Each structure stands twice: as structure tokens, then as C-alpha cells.
């Protein structure tokens, strides 16, 4: 007669206590974008700082990373209302949904574009959203000027997307630096891949 081995259930791991996060409007301290982003900061670091600010709920910092007079600020609305709009999800705001950075492309020394994929890992979706961020460098460092979004089927991976897959930006940034405005094509220039 053989003995039967009975597996005993393992105890469930202890649940971690829920972390309580303060909304940005309650936080006593917001970081200053000017102190974190210098004129020599690389584009990737600006993107990274953007998402670290999103994690801590510092929407004032995110707003500060956009250029005054830019299409991004027009999209975001008034600075006083932006944290509330994001926290309460009153409307869909471009540039604040978590995703993966897939491409950085420089059009000139003072003009860069990012492609950010959202929902790529969601198995239930047959498509994903791709955002194109336009960043221009000023004396304050890189600042976000425009963000737009397209929906792409999953058979096209983000690595094969080019700037030509996105529509041309509606208008040139108001505060473009001298070298970027000297470009004949302006911010819509990289739509024609080199």
C-alpha cells in the first residue's frame, strides 16, 4: 500500500497596506521644473522627469515643462485648473497616460520628437495609441510644445512608425528658438523621413 502525498496549501502572502497618496493640490511641495531641467538636460531625461512627476501627482511640474504660448499649454488649459482636470479625469488630456517611450528623433539641435506608445501591452485591444511629442530647446532647456495622438493597429509595431504616420501639426510653436524657426519646414518638418 503506497502513501498518498497531500499538498498542503501555502499560506497566502500578506497583503501590503494600501499606500495613501495625497492629491497634488494637497501636497505642500512641488518641484520646480527650472531646478530639475537645465539647458543641457537631454530629451530622455525630460521625458523621465515628466513621468516621475505624474507618479507623485505633481501636475504643476508637468505644466511647467510645457512652453509658454505653446499648443500643449492651450490643450492643457489654465495652470490653476490643470491639476484638477488630471486628478479627476474630467477629460482626456494628451501626454498624461502611461505608456512606453519607443523613439526619439532629432530634427535639429533644438527640435526633437518622441513617439510614446499607450496600450501596447493590453491583450484585449487590437490597436494601441501612439503619441508624438514635439519638444523645442530654449534657454530654459527642452520644453514640450505639442502632443498629438493616433490609433494604430497592433500589426504595426511602434518601432516602424515614422513622423509621416502622424498628421502635420496645425501651427508652428509660438516660442520657437531661432535655430528651429530658421528651418524651412518648421515643426512639421520631420513628417518627411530622412
Main beta-sheet strand count, sense and barrel state:
4 strands, antiparallel
Structural class: alpha+beta
CATH names the topology of the domain at 33-161 as Nuclear Transport Factor 2, Chain: A
Strand order of the largest sheet: 1-2-3-4
CATH class of the domain at 33-161: Alpha Beta
Secondary-structure element series: HHHHHEEEEH
Shape from CA axes? Answer: globular
The stretches of 5 or more residues where confidence is low (pLDDT under 50) are: 18-28, 173-194
**Tally of helical runs:** 6
**Mean pLDDT over the residues:** 78
- Gyration radius, in Å: 21 Å
Description:
It is a single chain. The protein is built from six helices and four strands. The radius of gyration is 21 Å and the shape is globular. By secondary structure, the chain is of the alpha+beta class. The longest helix is centred in the N-terminal third of the chain and has 14 residues, at 43-56. Strands 1-2-3-4 form a four-stranded antiparallel β-sheet. It has a domain at 33-161: Nuclear Transport Factor 2, Chain: A, CATH 3.10.450. It has helices spanning 33-36, 43-56, 59-64, 71-76, 82-88, 178-181, and strands at residues 100-108, 111-118, 127-138, 141-153. The chain starts with 32 loop residues before the first helix and ends in a 13-residue tail after the last helix.
Amino acid at each position: 500500500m503506497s502513501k498518498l502525498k497531500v499538498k498542503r496549501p501555502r499560506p497566502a502572502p500578506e497583503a501590503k497596506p494600501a499606500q495613501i497618496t495625497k492629491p497634488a493640490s494637497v501636497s505642500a511641495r512641488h518641484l520646480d521644473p527650472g531646478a530639475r531641467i537645465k539647458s543641457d538636460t537631454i530629451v530622455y531625461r525630460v521625458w523621465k522627469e515628466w513621468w516621475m512627476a505624474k507618479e507623485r501627482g505633481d501636475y504643476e511640474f508637468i505644466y511647467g515643462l510645457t512652453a509658454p504660448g505653446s499648443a500643449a499649454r492651450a490643450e492643457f488649459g489654465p495652470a490653476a485648473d490643470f491639476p484638477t482636470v488630471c486628478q479627476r479625469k474630467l477629460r482626456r488630456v494628451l501626454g498624461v497616460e502611461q505608456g512606453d517611450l519607443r523613439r526619439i528623433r532629432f530634427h535639429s539641435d533644438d527640435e526633437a520628437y518622441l513617439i510614446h506608445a499607450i496600450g501596447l501591452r493590453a491583450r484585449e485591444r487590437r490597436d494601441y495609441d501612439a503619441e508624438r511629442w514635439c519638444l523645442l530647446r530654449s534657454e530654459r532647456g527642452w520644453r514640450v510644445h505639442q502632443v498629438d495622438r493616433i490609433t494604430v493597429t497592433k500589426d504595426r509595431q511602434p518601432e516602424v512608425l515614422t513622423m509621416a504616420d502622424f498628421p502635420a501639426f496645425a501651427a508652428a510653436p509660438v516660442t520657437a528658438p531661432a535655430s528651429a524657426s530658421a528651418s524651412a519646414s518648421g515643426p512639421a518638418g520631420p513628417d518627411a523621413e530622412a
